[in-house]
Amino acid sequence: MNTHAIELTTRDGEQLRFECATDQNLLEAAADAHIVLPAQCGQGSCGTCYADVTHGDFTLGKHNPAALPVDDEAKGGTLLCCTFPQSDLRISLPFDHDRILIGEIKVRNAEITAVDSVGENTLRLELRLAPDEDDGSVAEFEPGQFMELEVPGQDIKRAYSLANTGNWEGRLEFLIRLQPGGLFSTWLREQAAVGQTLIVHGPKGAFGLHESGLRPRWFVAGGTGLAPMMSMLRRMAEFQEPHPARLYFGANRAEDLFCQTELEALQAELPQLQVIYCVWKPEDNWLGFSGTPVDALAQDLAGAVVLPDIYLCGPPALIDAAEAAARAKGVPDQQVLSERFLPTV
Amino acid sequence: MFCYQCEQTDRSNADSGCATAKGMCGKDATTSDLQDLLIHGVKGIAQYAKRARALNAPDNAAGEFMLYAMFTTLTNVNFNATRFVTLIQEAAQVRDRVKASYITAALTSGLTPEQLTGPAAWQPAADMDGMLKQAADVGINAGLDQVGADIIGLRSLVLYGLKGVCAYAHHAYVLGGESDTVYAGIEDALDFLSNDPTDAEALLNQSMALGTLNLEVMALLDEANTGTFGAQQPTQVRITPIKGKAILVSGHDLGDLAALLEQTKDTGINIYTHGEMLPAHAYPKLKAYPHLVGNYGGAWQDQQKEFAAFPGAILMTSNCIIEPQAQYRQRIFTAGPVGWPGVRHISDKNFAPLIQAASALPGFKEDVSEKVVTVGFGRDAVLGVADKVIDAVKSGAIKHFFLVGGCDGAAPGRNYYTEFAEQAPQDTVVMTLGCAKYRFNQHDFGDIGGIPRLLDLGQCNDSYSAIKIATALAGAFECGVNELPLSLVVSWFEQKAAAVLLTLLALGIRNIRLGPTLPAFLTPNLVQVLVDKYGLLPITTAQADIEASLTRKAA
């Protein structure tokens, strides 16, 4: 079997190399070389392993078009999990070297310590990692990363963004939208209880804070896309980072918004944080912004003196619309960072 | 970016220096450019501070800011662009304060205040993009086309030497050691640079003045270290782990280590030193803590592997950090001038989060069989047995002394230092300091009539000890240091070493062998000047250099 030399260059200029056979996808070949790249579904449906091929030929396997917008594909964009090399490749990765794990992804047990409803179809799930020989009781992850949660003995595994920050008590916090008919959602709704054990894989993912001086940071979240934003904002509060910060948090109806108490607590610790609640279909008595968070973003970008770094998380439609709004206002592509939430049933 | 301040600078092109998106050290172009702009801002402070001091209105708080700000720009210290934006803004505020007190002092004395230009008149841009535009005009290479590479190289020698002086002065400052003459000397040098000097002779003289100033700084630091923690004593240090929870402390700041030792008393957490913290075990007031159990790992360049394997929390003080890997990024903390984006920083010596992390991490599962090295041969320990040493020289038992020390690094050429120390003949004594010692400090050197053949003088910060020992021996033999049977074999990596080199040259010490490569900022013309005027020697091979040292009658 032919193999090709693959050269990866991270956003911060580090290079990594490995070999990949023509019938193997790049993600697996990298993992074989102990280079664990940010990825999630491994089957072309989530978009987490997006990268740009700058040189060389490849074939792209079956994938979800929502995970790889055509504009990106046209300029060499690909999903590493379904990319098969036809020549040597040079690839540009949209994240820094520190998001690549050299080694293996950790798999640990965690106990459910809380499972609370925070909205009609939204749960807050809190886990505590079981202390183990190699990792003690620490929960180590970067804000913006996710974990895959697995129900032991059942073939149910789903990825969710973490909403808290790394800590030494082993706490993991998730905000989970219950999908109608979803396997994990059904399990959560019907069977999950405090004291049960889950298997957690991770942390994974490259979404997270990007250091760019004191440029303002605007966070745009739809629904449970709030989780990684909470994590990043909590990190900013913990480090007392001075960047101006705004959170645009949107839902269809006012009663679908959640975590207002937590966000108020966050504002107390991070006084420069402005929170803009956006409701698409408000009642008459709604006092916040009426419209989507993208509408609010576009409106504020028009008056922005300094173009901010924009962090996006939510369903693909929200991200596509926000990216279009940012481009229209002249925000450079490298200042727009996103994580797409694609439902898996 | 353009940066050629350290030994590992990119030499792949005809013009040496890191000039792409990221330097060899991992510093990105944004951070590098912001560092250049911060230095510009600090020069502006010094322009006014020097004049205010001359009018009896010194501002030592501004001096302390200058030390800290300059320290953050050394190699492997601070990589956080956000931190530099804040420091640049602060530099302008400090400058405005000093300017105001200068104007008041001048008017009070009946003088017309000078209208200063250059950095003194600079105003920081409102945001980072604007600052990066400003930085483009004040980089290290600014004016290259007009003044040529030799003058840029000499300015760099002054600037990099000054960075080292500031770093050492900051080390002294955090332990309570301050001096008006040191602040004045630093202000003079920065003010000198603010005029974009073009006279080679004046630049060389300024370099030597900095060398002389650095001797005073090293003395201040020596006094701060020994005054706070007692004089170093010869001490055996365990270099293998023992079972239990653990914290690893790296960098050079003994004050941070002392605070951590106090805060971890009776917690059951063991403290290990890493890299340049090794000499801490020799200080009476530090080694009095029983939970300062040993040393772990080697020199700074191995930290990524060593920290990833360390099963506890890690504290990086003062300098020598390289990119924290994902495996330990959440459990490494920085203190003092050090910084890395996304890594927790402790600025107030409250190490509670570090201790909490160490408690949650597993620690070492087992004891590893004991191995030790011996440290603690500072000037007091060596000069305490001076009679014995002098007798051994007179009887011919000791034929020669080598000082093999300085920084370590990853370059393959650094094997020279391992070979040099290990191949030095049995009737010679090898003194060492800095982290270059890790290349040979586990080798069994034996002793000469009870005097160990390997004497570990301490950190690079303890270069003062080496100078005191050499001066004392010269006194005992009634000769100059250059006439002693002593050869200096110096390994450099960054700007602290540049400052120490200037001190040695300013003292008139000749035949210093410098490697593994010569600084990229020294052009062939400048190297020739240092060779001709100061007897500086580039290294060749260990064997040839040992032979040449031993056959030398006198320098």
UniProtKB/TrEMBL annotation, chain A:
PROSITE patterns, A to Z: 2FE2S_FER_1, 2FE2S_FER_2, FAD_FR
Keyword terms, alphabetized: Monooxygenase, Oxidoreductase
UniProt cross-references to SUPFAM superfamilies, sorted A to Z: 2Fe-2S ferredoxin-like (SSF54292), Ferredoxin reductase-like, C-terminal NADP-linked domain (SSF52343), Riboflavin synthase domain-like (SSF63380)
FAD-binding FR-type domain span: 105-210
Pfam families: FAD_binding_6 (PF00970), Fer2 (PF00111), NAD_binding_1 (PF00175)
Domain 2Fe-2S ferredoxin-type: 4-97
GO molecular function: 2 iron, 2 sulfur cluster binding; methane monooxygenase [NAD(P)H] activity
EC number: 1.14.13.25
InterPro entries: 2Fe-2S_ferredoxin-like_sf (IPR036010), 2Fe-2S_ferredoxin-type (IPR001041), 2Fe2S_fd_BS (IPR006058), Beta-grasp_dom_sf (IPR012675), Cbr1-like_FAD-bd_dom (IPR008333), FAD-bd_FR_type (IPR017927), FNR_nucleotide-bd (IPR039261), MethMoxCompC (IPR054950)
Name of this protein: Methane monooxygenase
Organism: Methylobacter tundripaludum (strain ATCC BAA-1195 / DSM 17260 / SV96)
TrEMBL record, chain B:
Subcellular location: Cytoplasm
Keyword tags: 2Fe-2S, Cytoplasm, Iron, Iron-sulfur, Metal-binding, Oxidoreductase
Enzyme Commission (EC) number: 1.7.99.1
UniProt modified residues of type Cysteine persulfide: 407
Residues reported in the UniProt entry to bind [2Fe-2S] cluster: 3, 6, 18, 25
Catalysed reactions listed for this entry: A + NH4(+) + H2O = hydroxylamine + AH2 + H(+)
Gene Ontology biological process: response to hydrogen peroxide
Listed CDD domains: HCP
Record's cofactor remark: Binds 1 hybrid [4Fe-2O-2S] cluster.
InterPro entries: HCP/CODH (IPR004137), Hydroxylam_reduct (IPR010048), Prismane-like_a/b-sand (IPR016099), Prismane-like_sf (IPR011254), Prismane_a-bundle (IPR016100)
Residues the record lists as binding hybrid [4Fe-2O-2S] cluster: 252, 276, 320, 407, 435, 460, 494, 496
Cofactor(s) essential for the protein: hybrid [4Fe-2O-2S] cluster; [2Fe-2S] cluster
Molecular-function GO term, any one: 2 iron, 2 sulfur cluster binding
Entry GO CC: cytoplasm
Primary role: Catalyzes the reduction of hydroxylamine to form NH(3) and H(2)O.
NCBIfam families (alphabetical): hybrid_clust (TIGR01703), PRK05290.1 (NF003658)
Record family assignment: Belongs to the HCP family.
Protein name in UniProt: Hydroxylamine reductase
